[in-house]
Amino acid sequence: MQRRKTRTKRPELVAALAAALALAGCGSGSERRAAPQPRLAAPLAAALAARSDEVVQALEAGDSCTAAAHAQALQEAAISAINAGRIPGPLQEPLGSSVSDLVSRIHCVKKADEPRDRGKHKGRGKHGKGHEGDD
What we know:
Layout: H1 10-25, H2 42-60, H3 64-83, H4 89-105
Helix pairs in contact: 1-2, 1-4, 2-3, 3-4
């Protein structure tokens, strides 16, 4: 059985997402520009960044199932914030697509020592050679 890699640039993707969220919540410094950059409210940016940190921690621990669950929670929080109008228009598409991309890249891979069905269906309904009478 081949061992599947679970660390394929996911931490970098999540780190980039966290950086984008943090920058979106920050001011632009002392330079004056013609149009102000869109910003996230600091508490919202912090909450989304904390959720992305949970994804990173789970991936670094090699727990893809927990990482997938945290990524789903991050996506739900982002969608909820977008739908509530808490994400400025120019940031909605980049945030939504980044989080969706993250969710699509993380796949729950059970470890070899984890039972798949916990024996609930052991010996029931198996069809194949030697089980001609089972219907």
